[in-house]
Design goal:
With 408 residues, the chain is α+β, with helices and mostly antiparallel strands. It has helices at residues 8-14, 33-52, 66-72, 74-78, 100-107, 156-177, 199-216, 256-260, 286-297, 320-332, 347-353, 365-370, 388-401, and strands at residues 18-19, 30-31, 56-57, 63-65, 86-88, 91-95, 119-128, 144-154, 183-188, 220-224, 233-239, 245-254, 265-266, 272-273, 276-281, 310-314, 337-339, 359-363, 372-377, 386-387.
């Protein structure tokens, strides 16, 4: 059972992050304003991290012709998890269960030279899985998924280093987000017809992923039956407060889809060569990532991720003008701030209600006269009164640093 106090479904509703409605359907949550802020901030963090790592971002449609997924192998090996085809004139289209076929088409949309490789293509894109009602839950298992996905098209000689760099990018993101990996898993094929049958491709991809893990010095265990249908993968496992494991991030080396889509690049010899496709996801499903962040932090997000970063508390009506001016100045610095005035209860009640925010600023008559604030931190600390400008600068610095610490 989940730890009830840290269950993201309960916290998500208490903190007004997300909810569901039976008319929208099971496994199709909607995001409320504060939840949308967390999600947007997380997505922007990932985009910036990927841009710094040399990724280029694309957009691709959530629909594709059935033929596309027949070529990729999804229709033969994954159709049970896909929504039924929709008739569109003489064609059938499907809600995509994955982004990789679309990225393969973008890659092959024009001739590529070895000089372009590695080509790192990223997208935060929607995909759909026909999950059974019995496994749906909050944000962890949903039917409409926003995936932080990327595909690196590279030479065989570049594949290990690209996969290793992707694993390092995942590690840096976990440190910034306050996420701890429970373990790393090398996911291999199991019995049955779920997997493509080319044993040579499986052996080659598995050997390269072992080289990545061994070279990174990361302890891991190999587990059969957890691979993607087209190849082995490194899964970064997380655990909720009750100890239940889930996969959040992945790195895969794929020889199968480049062959299925006849991908190639022109080498220095002027001939065509087959690229390797490295699949990687830093935070996986945005929905599952937010669910884990809610549970890992108990709803008390790091300052840079908090929906409301600063609550300004005027002691009386006479300080209301100063409070609203402080909020205006905070917003000019890019901070998410709001006023909780006397009309919303006693000061003690407002302090308690504002506890999810990492920072509070109390303004009484003395503070208003001196353009100061009396800071209160979420962890209970109460630093000495500060000039308002210095207080805002400190918060802005903490937010920009994307660290978990509240104060210098």
């Amino acid at each position: 059972m989940r730890d009830h106090l840290h269950d993201h479904r309960r916290l998500g509703r208490e903190l007004n992050l997300f909810d569901t409605d039976p008319l929208m359907g099971a496994g199709l949550p909607y995001w409320l304003p504060d939840g949308a802020i967390v999600r947007h901030t997380l997505e922007e963090y990932v985009r910036e991290a990927e841009q710094r790592a040399g990724y280029r971002h694309v957009y691709s449609p959530v629909l594709g012709k059935r033929e596309l997924y027949e070529i990729s192998g999804h229709w033969d090996h994954y159709s049970e998890d896909m929504f039924p085809p929709m008739d569109l004139g003489s064609e059938q289209v499907l809600l995509r269960p994955s982004l990789c076929p679309h990225h393969a088409l973008i890659y092959r949309s024009r001739s590529r030279s070895y000089r372009e490789l590695p080509l790192r293509m990223a997208e935060l894109g929607g995909m759909y899985r026909s999950e059974l009602s019995g496994v749906l839950g909050g944000l962890t298992r949903v039917r409409a998924i926003t995936l932080n996905d990327a595909h690196i098209f590279c030479t065989l000689e570049q594949a290990v280093e690209e996969a290793r760099a992707a694993l390092e990018l995942i590690g840096r993101a976990y440190a910034d987000l306050g996420i701890r990996a429970a373990r790393h898993r090398l996911s291999l094929p199991g019995e049955g017809g779920k997997y493509v049958a080319d044993q040579d491709l499986w052996r080659r991809a598995t050997a390269l992923l072992r080289e990545v893990l061994d070279g990174s010095g990361i302890p891991y265990e190999a587990v059969e039956g957890e691979a993607a249908f087209y190849g082995p993968k490194i899964d970064v496992q997380i655990a909720d407060p009750a100890g239940r494991e889930a996969t959040l991030s992945t790195v895969q080396i794929d020889f199968h889809q480049p062959e299925r889509f006849d991908l190639h690049y022109i080498g220095p010899d002027g001939a065509k060569h087959r690229p390797v496709m490295v699949h990687r996801s830093v935070i996986g499903s945005v929905e599952r990532a937010v669910a884990h962040l809610v549970e890992a932090h108990g709803g008390a997000f790091p300052p840079w991720l908090a929906p409301v970063q600063l609550v300004v508390l005027p002691v009386g009506d006479d300080q209301a003008g100063h409070a609203h001016e402080l909020v205006r100045r905070a917003r000019e610095l890019g901070l998410r701030a709001e006023v909780s005035g006397p009309g919303q209860g006693t000061l003690a009640a407002r302090v308690r209600a504002a506890r999810p925010a990492p920072y509070q600023a109390v303004i009484g008559g003395r503070e208003a006269e001196a353009d100061q604030v009396a800071p209160r931190l979420r962890d209970g600390r109460r630093p000495a009164a500060l000039p308002a400008a210095e207080f805002l600068r400190r918060i802005a610095d903490r937010v920009a640093a994307r660290g978990a610490e509240l104060w210098e």
